[in-house]
Protein: Cell division protein FtsX
Amino acid sequence: MNALPQDGRDQRGPAHDHDDAIAAAARSGLGPWFEHHLHSLVASLGRLLRKPWAALLTIGVMAVALALPLGLWAALSNIERFAGDVQRSRQISLFLKPDIAVERARALAAALRARPEVGTVELRTPEQGLAELREKSGLGDSLSAIEGNPLPSLLLVTPKGDELALAQSLGELAEADLVQHDAGWRQRLDGWLRFGGRLAWMLAIGLGLGALLVVGNTVRLDIQSRREEIGVLQLLGATDGFIRRPFLYLGACYGLAAGAVALALLTVADRSLREPLGALAASYGSRFVLEGFGPLQALAILAGSAALGWFGAGLVTGHHLRQARAGRG
Structure:
């Protein structure tokens, strides 16, 4: 028989303390609670595998409902990048007079950077402009035959606030020859992007509701097939949470599988479109590459789709339990 020290404390070591903590958790009910959650998850997967064709049909419908708004969001994101992003479209091109020296252009650029309504100012000298023109236009031989450099210095100004007022003030500078700013194109681009984002949200809400109805109807059929079993559990005193738990995991499994299939469909679409779209962008002198969802975005989509299935199953199961309770009353 092990003896205890005089102060009455047990000094058997941390391993025994860990075993005691597990035993205390089991006595407190956490052990059976965890075991029932695990059993509910495994049982839900088993019911999916016992009816593979019905499960695949439900998962396929949910996957299409999820893939449509997600694909639209991805397309809008890539369109915004391809357009050069809204910030880049706000740039104001200030062409200086041909007789303005480069040193004076640099001083003017420094003065503009100090203005509070100006974000950034980039100077392109006539030499840089001519080199870029030779590279992108394909007229290198023709440009070499021209004596001198006819191009002026160029200032690319990015505003912080109202670009229309800034463009007007830049045009009043003594060094300014031409101010080029297409605010209308930027406003139209912003309008189309806002419309696309609103359309994506409406599709997400409508198709998400459709996914809820699909998983809810599937869980309802499973509840109907287990009506007698649920009645017996209620007579034995099982709580609503105990009865609801397997169906919640069933809905979450449907949602998680649908999210994975939706991501797979979008990945296939991304791979099939990336090469021809890249070649089309290269013909316009752009290095644009189609981008899909990143790892964090994919995890968020999977978690959201699982939560959607969990919520749909919870609505249907709660409605059935309330009806059963009212019938007994």
Observations:
- The longest strand covers residues 118-124.
- The mean pLDDT is 76.
- Strands lie at 92-96, 118-124, 154-159, 176-180.
- Residues 278 and 289 are 6 Å apart (CA to CA).
